[in-house]
Amino acid sequence: MRNAHHGSRKWSIIIASTVCVSLIAIVVAGWLYYVKTQQPQPITYDTNDPVARQEVEGREEVVVAPAVQAEYKVAADMPRMLSIESIGVNARVLPMGVNPDNSLQAPVNIYDSGWYDGSAKPGQPGAALIDAHASGPTRQGLFAYLDTMQKGDRVKLERGDGEMLEYEVVAVETTALDTVDMQKVLKPYGDATEGLNLITCTGKWLQQQRTYNQRAIVYTQRV
Length: 223
What we know:
alpha+beta, 31% strand, 4 helices, eight-stranded mixed beta barrel, Sortase, Chain: A, 8 strands, 2 domains, single chain
């Protein structure tokens, strides 16, 4: 009877241990599934449909890996990478045009920046214009702190040929969406020959227009 008792106890311990392991496995699997489903996912859309593309601007929150940045290539005279140490920016610069509603195109991914192809190329007379998102659906975007930049801050822009151009902030302003002077934004600030101007959204969210009511603009000149 004693041996039978010990045998029964042994099997009870084994069964209990098995149940615990199974429960742990279920919990871990559930947690991994939760983490996976909470991770940002790439946005898919019809790349040939400009309206569909505008609908997903700023919706993708997948972090752009350094390896992806390193492999990114553009023409020799086009901007490739943007770096702003003071606000922690290091991002690809993607070519942008104009949306069907005549608004300036912005990147789909909130961690990319966009160079308006109707502005000057870096290293040429005029001002290059780069935009990026201040936020996405659930995360801060690349230009979340653009409006905190100050005079004297430096901005670096790498071209496709590897040349690194450096700029210095000369002015920072915040203006209402309907009072943005695009002619001013597309020109070098003051009497500068070459400039790089940065723009993003700020202020209050306008639900009907699906944008913010203000724009933060940083003007820089080449040094």
